[in-house]
Design goal:
The complex is a heterodimer of chains A (about 375) and B (about 375). With about 375 residues, chain A is an alpha+beta fold. Chain A folds into three domains: about 110 residues, Butyryl-Coa Dehydrogenase, subunit A, domain 1, CATH 1.10.540; about 110 residues, Butyryl-CoA Dehydrogenase, subunit A, domain 2 (Beta Barrel), CATH 2.40.110; about 140 residues, Butyryl-CoA Dehydrogenase, subunit A, domain 3, CATH 1.20.140.10. Chain A is built from twelve helices and ten strands. A four-stranded mixed sheet of chain A has the order 1-4-5-8. Chain A has a four-stranded antiparallel sheet with strand order 2-3-7-6, with no helix packed on it. In chain A, helix 9 runs antiparallel to helix 10. In chain B, a hairpin with a 2-residue loop joins strand 2 and strand 3. Classes of the chains: A alpha+beta (about 375), B alpha+beta (about 375). The interface between A and B is large, with 46 and 44 residues.
Chain lengths: ~375, ~375
């Protein structure tokens, strides 16, 4: 057994922490959220340090970090802002998917631009009638000469309306085969004529934006198809372990920060002549909370280690996702309780954790889907 | 044993439900977004007799009737929690200290118009350093001639911005803990009084304010009850408010549950309505069970209160269970809706935000547990 990190990993953790402390203080996060603005500037600074390429293989201009390093980054960034850590992942995992399945031209064209923060990438899967059942998607692409002509609608699209964003769009290219076998991935710049993006108001995640996208006779060049025609479902699933792993890492930093906020309040807030943290009910609540954060963190670290060792880890990643997202929501609820009326007030940061955490048991595979995956990995043929 | 509502209560419930669904429900989304209270709901409610449910006819009321008040809170909160809270405050802490402790003159001057919905009352007890520990009130009231001079700050004041008068607890004797607190009736025009609205996560139609008093003069005839006995006065009526918050929690839970049940029957994934999956079915079964249990606890406590029986423990149990229940139900209702639940276009995220205050105001869950423990002899 070894729960330590390498020297390089410790340095990585420290440099992310130092950077975020300087560039992403709480006031900055509050301001961006209040204005509902995408963190272009902060990602620009990260790009200058080469961070947007850290997980990208060296041959495409990156540094080729492994899963454990990626988890360290996600955890440390999310201590300062869940959304900034989440948005960081959105582009990078689309980029990694292009690297795995795209043509050499696509990789050379898109990846360096992404690393330099000149373009962003977002993923387009969910539709009004295709949520957990993603393979039921109906947005279609038909070849017309040298162009794909796309029609349909996507919804709940994270960060799709950011400037210079390319949507990695999953579309139906064959209606006459079983649903998983007629899906392809096509790259669609979000300013292509016929693409209409409408912001959806949401409870949280206000910097990154959530949108619905309408496609009406949208034409993109034939070469924007990624990989094999009708091979989209496999692409959608490939790299999922690593992506989900990163997503989980963003829960644990945020969770730790909110526990720290609640702890600080419990130490300072005096009622009945003593700090409320000295009441057993509050002290025990905080003890449970820290235990849950540590449990969530250990599940993520274990899955990251397994991934790094090349072991199959879908079950472990799903457990980390299920537990971490539900823990973050539960913790934000308890943190708010400890802060009482202040927790409910918009002047304090606790309510942001409460709002941001609530989507995490739904997005990137709902808790129900994670349970189904875990049960199937346990040999149960859960329908 | 009899678990039926009386004929009169059934008629009242129907009338309240109709009013709530017709006149409040359509405003919910808009006024949440605007963070503003539709003030005309007050005179309208007064006209229909909905603001004097705890008070006798001589002041224009229709009660006292805790069961009816609970039914009203349940039905209006089901329509919209933010708007309902304004009406609930007016029926409880916004008026009860005047009715219970005010002189006849103050009752005529403030309670009667409040029951008509022509004057709105605020209740100011909490301070920046005084939350659960009510006996720690720091705001001072100094006697000077025919007045008291108030200095200090109040926060989380319900209906504070729109109020025509405020009921304020201040300390008339220093260092005496539970003793030495006095209740005052303050008009916002008084010199030295300022107020500021606060932003909050939910119940956003309802207003909550911060009050500042700087040498604010209040005439002596505006003292409610006995000087120095304010703590005991206020604590003597908290049960009723707790029962009512329990009823509101049940109403909000029913709104979330009914929306989720409908959605589970309509939404199809993997070729069938999601309500066919056991994972979703059992969630809904649990939600329905919990709502039923909370409702039983609330109406039992209300029934005891109306009979004039002791119900401190029952009121706290009802408030504790119902307020925690509505949070579980709102959470699961949102989960059943998936991404749609997180979107402003659907009411689920609003229910989820609104539910969260139920466990915090009118005595946090922790305070309810404390009271129940003490009632158990601990």
């Amino acid at each position: 057994m070894n729960f330590g990190f390498t020297e390089e990993q410790n340095i990585l953790r420290k440099s992310v922490k130092d950077f975020m402390e300087k560039e992403c203080p709480p006031e900055y996060v509050r301001e961006l959220e209040e204005k509902e603005e995408y963190p272009y500037e902060l990602y620009g600074k990260m790009a200058k340090l080469g961070w947007l390429g850290l997980p990208i293989p060296e041959e495409y201009g990156g540094s080729g970090l492994g899963p454990v390093d990626l988890v360290i980054m996600g955890e440390e960034m999310s201590r300062f802002s869940f959304e900034i850590a989440a948005g960081f992942g959105v582009s990078i995992f689309c980029g990694l998917n292009i690297i795995e399945h795209g043509s050499e031209e696509q990789k050379k064209f898109y990846i360096p631009k992404m690393i330099k923060n000149e373009i962003r990438l977002s993923i387009g899967i969910t539709e009004p009638n295709a949520g957990s059942d993603a393979a039921a998607l109906t947005t279609s692409a038909v070849l017309d000469g040298d162009s794909w002509v796309i029609n349909g609608q996507k919804t709940f699209q994270t960060a799709a309306d950011a400037k210079n964003n390319i949507i990695c769009l999953y579309v139906r290219t064959d209606k006459n085969v079983p649903k998983h076998k007629g899906i392809s991935q096509i790259l669609v710049p979000n300013d292509t004529p016929g693409v209409e993006i409408r912001r959806i108001k949401t409870l949280g995640r206000k910097m990154l934006h959530t949108s619905e996208i309408f496609f009406e006779d949208v034409r993109v060049p034939r070469e924007n198809l990624v990989g094999e025609l009708n091979g989209g479902w496999k692409m959608l699933l490939s790299g999922l372990e690593l992506e989900r792993l990163y997503v989980c890492s963003t829960y644990i930093g945020s969770s730790q920060t909110l526990v720290n906020l609640a702890l600080e309040h419990a130490k300072q807030r005096v009622q009945f002549g003593r700090p409320i943290g000295t009441f057993q009910a509050i002290g025990h609540m905080l003890a449970d909370m820290q235990t849950e954060v540590d449990a969530a963190r250990l599940l993520v670290y274990r899955a990251a280690w397994m991934h790094d060792q090349g072991m199959p880890c879908m079950k472990e990643v799903s457990m980390a996702k299920l537990y971490g997202s539900e823990a973050y929501a539960r913790l934000s609820n308890q943190g708010m309780q400890i802060m009482g009326g202040y927790g409910y007030s918009m002047e304090y940061d606790m309510q942001r954790h409460f709002r941001d955490s609530r989507i995490l048991t739904v997005s990137a595979g709902s808790s129900q889907m994670q349970r189904t995956v875990i049960a199937r990995q346990m040999g149960l043929r859960v329908e | 044993m009899d678990f039926e509502l009386s004929e009169e209560h059934k008629i009242f419930q129907r009338t309240a439900a109709q009013f709530a669904q017709k006149e409040i429900a359509p405003l919910g989304e808009e006024y949440d977004e605007k963070e503003e209270y539709p003030r005309w709901i007050f005179p309208r409610s007064g006209e229909l007799g909905f603001l004097g449910i705890p008070y006798p006819e001589q002041y224009g009321g229709t009660g006292p009737d805790t069961i009816a008040l609970s039914l009203f809170a349940e039905e209006t909160t089901k329509a919209d929690a933010g708007i309902a809270m304004g009406l609930v405050v007016q029926n409880t802490v916004g008026t009860s200290p005047i009715y219970n402790f005010g002189s006849e003159e103050l009752k005529q001057r403030y309670l009667v118009p409040a029951i008509r919905g022509e004057a709105i009352g605020a209740f100011a007890l909490t301070e920046p350093n005084v939350g659960s520990d009510v006996s720690a009130v720091e705001m001072s009231a100094r006697e000077e001639g025919e007045s008291y001079i108030l200095n200090g700050a109040k926060t989380f004041v319900s209906s504070g911005m729109m109020a025509d008068y405020a009921i304020v607890a201040a300390r008339t004797e220093k260092g005496k803990g539970h003793e030495g607190i006095t209740i005052f009736l303050v008009e916002p025009q008084s010199s030295g009084f300022t107020r500021k609205g606060l932003k909050k996560l939910g119940i956003r139609a309802q207003d909550i304010a911060e009050f500042t008093f700087e040498d604010c003069h209040v005439p002596k005839e505006n003292v409610l009850g006995e000087v120095g006995k304010g703590f005991y006065h206020l604590m003597s009526t908290v049960q009723k408010t707790r029962i009512v918050v329990g009823a509101s929690s049940v109403g909000l839970a029913r709104a979330a549950f009914e929306t989720a049940l409908r959605y589970a029957k309509e939404r199809r994934q993997f070729g069938q309505p999601i309500g066919k999956f056991q994972g979703i079915q059992f969630k809904l079964a649990d939600m329905a069970t919990e709502i039923e249990l909370a409702s039983l606890a609330v109406y039992k406590a209300a029934w005891r209160n109306d009979k004039g029986e002791q119900c401190i423990k029952e009121a706290s149990m009802a408030k504790l269970y119902a307020s925690e229940m509505v949070n579980r139900v709102a959470y699961q209702a949102l989960q059943i809706h998936g991404g749609y639940g997180y979107m402003r276009e659907y009411p689920l995220e609003r229910y989820y935000r609104d539910a969260r205050i139920m466990e915090i105001f009118e005595g946090t869950s922790e305070i309810q547990r404390l009271i129940i423990s003490r009632q158990l002899g601990l």
